[in-house]
Amino acid sequence: MYIKRRQVLIAMLVMSQLGCMAFGVLWASQWLHAAFNQIIHRSVTLQAESLALTIARQSSDLADLQQPVDASGSKDSLQRLVEQLNVPHDGFVSIVRTADGKVIAATLAAPAGIKAGTALTTETLQTGKGSPQPLLAALAQDKGEGKQSFVSGMSEFAGQPYAVTALGVPQHEAAILVALSDASVNRLSAELVTPMIQVGFVLTGAVVGATAICTIFLVRRFDSTLLEVSSSLEREVERRTLGLQRSRNAVVFGLAKLAESRDKDAGQHLERLRTYVTILASELAKHNSKIDHHYVANLAIASALHDVGKMGVPDAVILKLGKLTAAERRAMQMHTVLGDECLASVERMLGDNDQFLTFAREVAAAHHEQWDGSGYPYGLQGKDIPLAARIVALADVYDALTSHREYRPAASHAEAREWIVSHYGSQFDPEVVEAFIAREVDFAKISQAAAQLDERRVAASAQTPATAEFEQAPATRSTL
């Protein structure tokens, strides 16, 4: 997702830059087109004026313009002169009399209806100096001054627009008309502007492409640097977190060992319990998606605090070897409530919903609850008992049964297995029992190693073990 966001950001940057530059190129092309149009039209007007003056100077028959047109419809000398002209921009030249609009001479490229001997129709001339006016009236307006003058503007001939420049010769009541095709002039402007626009778009693409490449390069370098810094920070955080967890686990296990040390028969109970819990939770994880490696690790450490409440039980009860009275039994059972309250106060002080503390509270409070609801302290039944407590309950009973006590010998794995299976669905969660059966080989190896250690410890002890049989007291003080 992180990379996709970077890609979208780059795409938005490139598109915005491309849009801005494209808008700039289009605006510049419009401005250039208008500017070139003005320049070219001014140049065309000057060309037309120059051409009209050339015709006026070269024509020796202008003095005879008032003579009648011959039978062929033109004066031969003027017609030949006009036909020899090279008129640019698909234009034409005609010489007319302003009095009656008679065409004296015209180039062959002139539109239909404009030829020698015909009368020029009254075309509207747009001079740009006011309202449109008839062309012939514009040509004759300087007649009284007796001077040659130019009239320029736009007019239409045969339905096509032309840029018209007329040189009036008022002393002879004639005019030289030079008309250049407006479409041809516009094509010339477009031919000049279009390459510039194309170059502009090519440069825009090149600039945007180069910017995109540089942006991608810089973003990747930034991401690479950020990833390195992030990885370094993650490693440091993980290292410190693991260090804190190890410190916490060591403190927790030390406190649990301190509570357990009051029972001189406990031995390595916490170490074995942690191993049994890890085995059971790992097996259950195969069919329970809620159990992951964090769950297993936290539960294994939290299991050490299952009897932390025994710190509040009187020594006379904890150290008593004989059968407990009803009052002593109630005092012993209070260790679950005391452990829950102790860990709850820790949880409130930290103000954090930590999975480890949650497991520790659940285990301390409910590891003596039974599946059929006959346990204590709250008489929870079935899945109302937290899963963490159900796992620790079986592991705790198994270790208590297979461990040597001064008032009874250790049971074998087979005897402990038979006793646990006989309480399937009554004291223990069926799923936890099935996980125990699936991994009983591992349980047997651990209990056998513990038994050998107990034998060496008993052999080195000068005390005589109690003669109470396992069958007579399967639920010992360690399982209360």
TrEMBL record:
Transmembrane listed as a keyword: yes
Domain annotation HD-GYP: ranges: 244-452
Keywords: Membrane, Transmembrane, Transmembrane helix
Pfam families: HD_5 (PF13487)
Membrane-spanning ranges: 196-219
InterPro entries xrefs: Cyclic_di-GMP/3'3'-cGAMP_PDE, HD/PDEase_dom, HD_GYP_dom
PANTHER family from the UniProt entry: CYCLIC DI-GMP PHOSPHODIESTERASE TM_0186-RELATED
Protein name according to UniProt: HD-GYP domain
Source organism: Lacipirellula parvula
Record lineage: Bacteria, Pseudomonadati, Planctomycetota, Planctomycetia, Pirellulales
